[in-house]
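Example S7 (structure tokens).
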């Protein structure tokens, strides 16, 4: 049976949390903690850790090395599905969010990152 990608597993539903990603300063420690704490099943795909957790059964989150190590502490980043990431990013900005990563293409779709008016990060994601 072919392994599904994260994109294949996301329903076509907008305005819902669809993915969570841990950017960790120490993936070995993070993996051990979450496996021991919750019994999460994990597999590696090219340096990226896929996590099977919760209702997803096959997939629920991902882990990667923290690209901001030394500047940004390890953190979880939520992704919300939107129909039009460019429009959603503009709307978020009008509502007081700060855009920290403009809309850009990824292998799985278009993404932007904003800080909500309280400073909490949020990724806006449009499926390809």
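Recovered sequence:
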């Amino acid at each position: 049976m072919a392994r599904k990608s994260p994109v294949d597993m996301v329903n076509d539903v907008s305005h819902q949390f669809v993915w969570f990603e841990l950017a960790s300063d120490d993936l070995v420690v993070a993996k051990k903690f979450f496996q021991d704490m919750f019994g999460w099943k994990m597999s590696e795909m090219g340096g990226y850790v896929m996590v099977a957790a919760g209702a997803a059964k096959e997939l629920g989150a991902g882990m990667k090395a923290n690209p901001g190590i030394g500047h940004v502490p390890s953190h979880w980043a939520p992704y919300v599905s939107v129909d039009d990431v460019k429009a959603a990013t503009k709307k978020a900005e009008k509502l007081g969010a700060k855009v920290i990563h403009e809309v850009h293409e990824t292998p799985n779709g278009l993404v932007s990152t904003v800080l909500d008016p309280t400073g909490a990060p949020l990724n806006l994601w449009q499926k390809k």
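Notes on this example. The radius of gyration is 15 Å.
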